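Work Package 3 (structural annotation) set out to generate three-dimensional models for the target panel prioritized at the project kickoff. During this period the team completed the workflow that converts sequence records into discrete structure tokens, so that structures can be stored uniformly alongside our sequence database. As a representative example, we reproduce one entry of 128 residues exactly as it appears in the project archive.
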Amino acid sequence: MVILTPAREILLAQGVQFEGLDDPMVAELLTLREGVSWVRGLGFMEMRFEGDAKVVIEKILRRDTRDNQVGAILEEVIHLLGLNPGFSLRFVGRRNNRVAHVVARKALSLFSTASRSFDFQIWLSSRM
């Protein structure tokens, strides 16, 4: 997760390593949930979140939580985004994915101490 200034300069970065997780949709949702929580905790009032997982972004924007596999995580993300009227979400196509990965690698090299681990199986068990 990388926070860029309006001039697209790297401000902060944080890495999350997911253990026991092999579903890309769940990984995208959890990363977004962690990112929204992170910037809220930092006191940001306005933030545009971008992602390249079109299905995930569309589900959030439509507030579609009917998916049995990810419905609970969708609800959390929608709730967190709704807590700040200045937060927005948009889809960015995969063509820009390469740029995002380059920025993320650079950002994490600048902020390597801000990395933490997230055990998906423990989190999932806590929800059941």
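The chain has one domain: 14-127.
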